[in-house]
Structures are given as C-alpha cells and as structure tokens.
C-alpha cells in the first residue's frame, strides 16, 4: 500500500481540554447552586424584616413589571429606534403603557399567576414558584415598624444618564421625539411594514399568473386576488408563521388603513395591546374591521369591502404611500429579528472567562508541543551515549534487544538516513534480531515496503519483522523505519528500484 499523508491528531491537547471543560462545567453549576442558595437566604431575611406577605407581593410585582418592560422594549422601543427615533422620556413612555387599563389587567394576572418559561440550567435565580412557596410558608409573626426613608430615588438626575446608556447599547443614532409624536410614528411604522409585505406578496402572486405584469401593486391588486380566490397563494407568499389566515387579515387591515391614512381619511394611533389602531372619523362603529376580516376569509365578501371604501372616498387604484407621514421618512423593517434567549450577564461573563482560559491553555500546549518537536528533530546523534553504552560491548543482537518502531505522529521530513548505534538496555529477548547496526528511514509520500526493500537490499518480510509490523504493509508519512545499514543504494533511490 502506498504511504499516504494522514491528518495529524492533536494528541494530549484534547485530553487537557476535556479535563478543563469538565472542571469548568462542574465549577459553574456548583457556583450557581451557591448563588441560588444565597438568594433564598436573602428572601428569608426580607420576610423576617417586613413579613412574608409583603415580600411575596413585592416579588410578584417585580416579576410582572419585568415582563411588561421586556414587552415594551422588544415590541415598541427597539423597533422604532432602528428607524432612527426614540421618545424623549423613555421611562415616561413606559409609565404611559403601564397606565393603560388593559395592560394593568394583564399585569394583575401576572402577579396572581406568575409563570416562568424557558428556564436555563445556567440561571442564577431559583425558580420563582419555589421562592414564593418558601416565603408564603413562613409564619406571619407580629407586624414590625417600617421606617419611611423617603423615595427610593431622591435625586432624579441620574435617570437621563441611565436612559442614554441604555439607548446607546445598540450603537445607533436616533432623534428624540415627544411622547405623542413617537407614539404616532410607532403605530404608523408597524402598519407600513405589514402593508408593504402584503403588496410584495400580491405583486409576486400576480406575476406568477401573468409574467407580463410590471405595474406596482395597489389595494385594488390585493382585492382582485382575493376576489378570484387566491387567498392560499397570497398567504403562502406573505408568511410562513402559524395561523396564516390571521396574518392575512392583519396585513389587509394594515394595507387598507394605510391607504385611508395616505388619502387623509384616517390616522393611526398607538395601542399598547394591539400595536396600532385605525382612527377613522367616518367609521365610528368600526364596521371596516368586520369587512376586512370577511374579505380575507371569503371571496364573496370582497364586494362589500369595495363598497365601504368607495363610501369613505378612497381610490383603491391609487398607489399606497409607504412612508412615515409623521416625520416624512421611509419606513424600514420594524419586526425584531428572532434571537436566542440570552443568559444572565453574570453567566455570560463566566462563560467568556472560561473560553479565554481554554484558549490560553490550548496556546500554551501548542507552544510546548512545538518546542518539544524542535528539540527532537534538532537532537544530535554525535552526543555521548547513555551510560549503558560503551564501545566494544556486544551489539544489539547479542543483547537480545529488538528496536521498537518510533512514533508515527512526527511532521513529514525529506528522506535521509543516519547511522544510529543502538544502546544496550536490559530487556528480555522477545525474538531473534539480525546482528547488524541499523539506519533510520523517514517514510515519504509514495514509499512502499517493496520499494524500500529494493533500495536497502533486503526483503519485505525482513522489514516487517524488524519494525514489528506483522503482516501489515501500510505506511504513514513521517514514520521512522529501521532499515539495514549495508544497503546497495546507500539510502538513495536508484533506477533499478523504480
């Protein structure tokens, strides 16, 4: 078999990396268990100070407030910030959201039935249900006097700095707007995005039926597709989300409202629970919502929607404006990208530290391996031999020493031969060995046992026996082979052995 170049293994580096990885895994989980225990102890101290009822109520309130803030940030603040606009008072806008009756109702449900989803083994907090169970199981005890120390934040001056720091995390520049202007812009931006997506889907669907169609899609294009029963094809190009029929209804509502808004017949207003609502003075009863939902589901309901739009004075053939009229700026994609759930900051820092330690360790192991390899390759055979070797002593064959094959993991080296007297060691005789000195031959690509036997004037069987290869004939590039010293080719390939 011809010698081939195999990928060199990493060797012991993987062993060290595995050991360090197991240690880091155990350390992180043990340390997180200690942190959870400390938090439970802090809950117990809080319950002892103000009572279990107050502590549990505060914990439920913090949980509901955190979920509400996460919704405000991901659904309203960050999408509009990517468009280049933020409210002048971020926390004031959040307070307006909390004051909404529907939001307050939702927060009350979260306080009454706190639910945690998607917990990670790397979470440094104990499960909320366990914390509440332990707190509420404590005896109430006598009420204690609570000293009123004034407001939690006596000086509001740090609040703007916190807001600037929070908004600056994205690295995007944004224009600050008043709360009302920012709310109108947010509502309009959400509607513009859905409207543009539906128009794109309508254009692709229409082009699939008639490739010659190049005109820009309008509300009339969408209604025409729905009237011809193209709901399925339109929905397939619009979204792949669950419940696509609802997505189509929502997109048609956004497109219809944007057409009315562009014609000056209505305006968008922000809804903290629905995202946006259409304020149409000529449709006080909200009949337009029912007609849009019916047209999205049933082709026979499209003429009724056409009639209502005509009554409102809308030209459905006119282009739908896809710009933010509030600030006269184009609207980009406002839907937040799907992201994996992030771990707590402390855990992220700990994992980053572990990755750094692993990289440094791997670097040190690589440097040590390189130094070790250079030391082996640069060793000088002319140096004095070990104490066990003395000139005039019996040869290796007389002592019963059989040379062992050397490592095959060395870097491939050009073929050369060096004289190497074998030192005398005390080893039991395993098999007879020829009474000769040997040379070392480094295998290169293309070598075969038959070719080497010809070059060094021996046989394949002798080479296999000398190097303890058994019946194997495969050679790896870079392997050291023992070959007889009295070779006819002197270690140089001759034309007779080609």
Which SSEs are present, and which pair or pack?
Blueprint: H1 12-50, H2 52-82, E1 85-87, H3 90-98, H4 101-112, H5 128-136, H6 158-167, E2 175-177, H7 179-209, H8 219-227, H9 231-238, H10 244-262, E3 267-271, E4 275-279, H11 287-297, H12 302-311, E5 323-324, E6 329-330, H13 345-377, H14 396-399, E7 417-420, E8 438-442, H15 449-455, H16 460-466, E9 480-484
Parallel strand pairs: 1-2
Antiparallel strand pairs: 3-4, 5-6, 7-8, 8-9
> Helical percent range?
40-55%
Instruction: Spell out the helices and strands N to C.
Output: HHEHHHHEHHHHEEHHEEHHEEHHE
The percent range for strand residues is: 5-15%
Count of helical regions? 16
Radius of gyration: 40 Å
Helix/sheet category: mainly alpha
The tally of beta strands, per DSSP, is 9
Cα distance, first to last residue?
15 Å
Low-confidence stretches: 1-9, 328-345, 380-436, 487-494
């Amino acid at each position: 078999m011809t010698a081939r170049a195999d990928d060199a293994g990493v060797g012991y580096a993987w062993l060290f990396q595995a050991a360090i990885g197991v240690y880091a895994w155990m350390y992180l989980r043990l340390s997180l268990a200690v942190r959870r225990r400390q938090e439970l102890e802090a809950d117990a101290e809080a319950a002892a100070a103000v009572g279990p009822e107050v502590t549990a109520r505060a914990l439920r309130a913090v949980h509901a407030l955190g979920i509400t803030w996460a919704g405000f940030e991901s659904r309203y603040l960050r999408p509009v910030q990517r468009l280049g606009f933020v409210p002048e008072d971020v926390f004031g806008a959040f307070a307006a959201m909390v004051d909404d009756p529907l939001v307050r109702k939702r927060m009350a449900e979260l306080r009454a039935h706190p639910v945690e989803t998607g917990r990670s083994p790397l979470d440094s907090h104990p499960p909320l249900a366990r914390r509440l169970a332990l707190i509420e199981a404590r005896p109430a005890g006598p009420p204690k006097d609570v000293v009123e120390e004034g407001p939690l934040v006596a000086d509001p001056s740090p609040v703007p700095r916190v807001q600037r720091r929070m908004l600056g995390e994205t690295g995007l520049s944004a224009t600050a707007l008043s709360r009302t202007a920012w709310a109108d812009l947010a509502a309009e931006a959400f509607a513009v995005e859905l409207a543009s997506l539906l128009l794109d889907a309508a254009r692709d669907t229409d082009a699939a039926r008639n490739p010659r169609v190049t005109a820009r899609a309008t509300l009339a294009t969408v209604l025409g597709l729905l009237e011809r029963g193209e709901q399925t094809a339109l929905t397939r190009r619009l979204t792949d989300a669950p419940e696509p029929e609802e997505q189509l209804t929502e997109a048609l509502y956004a497109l219809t409202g944007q057409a009315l808004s562009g014609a000056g017949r209505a305006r968008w207003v922000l809804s903290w629970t629905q995202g946006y609502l259409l304020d149409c003075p000529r449709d006080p009863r909200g009949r337009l919502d029912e007609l849009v939902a019916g047209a999205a589901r049933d082709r026979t309901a499209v003429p009724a929607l056409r009639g209502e739009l005509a009554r409102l004075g809308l030209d459905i053939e006119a282009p739908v404006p896809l710009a933010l009229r509030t600030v006269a700026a184009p609207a980009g994609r406002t839907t937040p990208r799907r992201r994996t759930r992030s771990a707590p900051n402390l855990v992220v820092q700990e994992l980053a530290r572990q990755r750094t330690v692993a990289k440094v360790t791997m670097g040190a192991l690589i440097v040590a391996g390189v130094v070790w390899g250079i030391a082996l390759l640069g060793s000088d055979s002319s140096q004095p031999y070990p104490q066990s070797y003395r000139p005039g002593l019996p040869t290796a064959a007389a002592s019963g020493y059989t040379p062992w094959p050397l490592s095959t993991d060395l870097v491939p080296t050009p073929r050369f031969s060096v004289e190497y007297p074998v030192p005398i060691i005390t080893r039991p005789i395993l098999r007879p060995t020829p009474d000769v000195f040997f040379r070392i031959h480094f295998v290169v690509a293309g070598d075969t046992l038959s070719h080497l036997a010809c070059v060094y004037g021996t046989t394949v069987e002798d080479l296999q026996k000398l190097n303890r290869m058994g019946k194997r004939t495969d050679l790896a590039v870079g392997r050291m082979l023992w070959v007889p010293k009295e070779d006819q080719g002197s270690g140089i390939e001759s034309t007779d052995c080609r």
